[in-house]
Amino acid sequence: MSGKGHEERAARRRGGFWRDNSLTLAFGSAFLLVLLGQALAGLADFNEQLTADGLQRIGLGEYMTTSDFAVDVTENWQSEFLQFFLYIFGTVWLVQRGSPESKEPHKIGTESEQEQRMGDHAGSASPRWAGTKDWRQRVYSRSLGLVMGSLFIGSWFAQSIAGMAAYDEQQLRRLQDPVGWGGYLALPDFWNRTLQNWQSELLAVAAMVILSVYLRQRGSPESKPVGAPHTSTGVEG
User: Fold this and answer.
1) Which residue in 38, 75, 106, 121 has the most C-beta neighbors within 10 A?
2) Is residue 127 part of a domain?
3) Are 104 and 175 found together in one domain?
4) What does the alpha-carbon distance between residue 150 and residue 78 come to, in Å, rounded to a whole number?
């Protein structure tokens, strides 16, 4: 192994697991804490509704298995996965000159195998499927978008099921007939929950793309270097 390879391995060892994975660990931990906070706040609100309806209050564990909690969680998840799914595929063909969130305008499209280091252009450290020339390469070269799309569809479906269950529970409390899954998909309740999340995610992406053209955050890979020209595209700090 070359001296450079030894230096890289030594640098990785010095970094350690916690530093090398700090971004995932920090956001993953924050997610769990916020999810717990949402469960506690949701439980308090849910118990207030039960008390108003003359029903018995429930505990945290029981609340986290209810359709009310499930629909609140999944409706946010599906909008987040939709955001990333659309952004991943959209940035293949759409660009914003001057934004580090965009690739350079002349690179619109899927790019050549040489640019993507695929097939004969794959290196020794490249993922194994990147160097193949069959279905494995085709799947792997789109795997991020496919997984994000699958997560969006799965969480959207889970939201529709949980939302239907929560809606039908309210219907039964009012001594009205439940609507079922197909009927719930046609109701304003479902689309109000869905679209209010979609619009916020699309706004956030659009704002990030255009603001990163003119504004900077020193040290962040989501920003251009502080001194980079506004027209610099696809350059990260």
Assistant:
1) 75
2) no
3) yes
4) 10
Whether residue 49 is found in the same domain as residue 88 = no
Report the alpha-carbon distance of residue 8 to residue 199 in Å, rounded. 44
3 state SS for 167-214: HHHHHHHCCCCCCHHHHHHCCHHHHHHHHHHHHHHHHHHHHHHHHHHH
235 lies in the same domain as 153:
yes
Neighbours of 82 (CB within 10 A): 22
Q: What six digits make up the tokens of 190? A: 């479902």
Task: Say how many domains are in the chain.
Answer: 2
Q: Dump pLDDT digits (tens) for 109-132.
A: 999 999 999 999 999 999 999 999
Query: Per the domain annotation, does 29 fall within a domain?
Result: yes
Q: What is the dihedral of CA 224, 229, 233, 234, to 10 degrees?
A: -30
Cβ neighbours of residue 12 closer than 8 Å, sequence gap 6 or more:
20
Residue reference for tokens 């689309």: 191
Q: What is the pLDDT of residues 21-64, one digit of tens each?
A: 999 999 999 999 999 999 999 999 999 988 988 889 999 999 99
> Which residue type does 223 have?
S
Do 59 and 42 touch, CB atoms closer than 8 A? no
